[in-house]
Amino acid sequence: MKKILTKLGEWLDSISYWFLVPAAVALALAPFVPEPHLVETTGMLFRGELTEPMYIFDFFMHSSLLYLLAIRVYRDVRRRRDGDE
Prior knowledge:
By secondary structure, this protein is an all-alpha fold.
């Protein structure tokens, strides 16, 4: 299991911020009009209305690159804090 996580970490570290940040923002805000799906489904989640499988999938799909970006930033911050540059 540790070997798989190491490979996934290496893969994630190989993705450039120049690609990851714009892609994460674009997917999170798509479609831009009338309201981004992530904003709509997050509101549904907090109101307790996120019950249909399609909307749950939509929520995770539109936020997936944000999760990857957060993990990438966390790994970089931890690596710099530990001095493993």
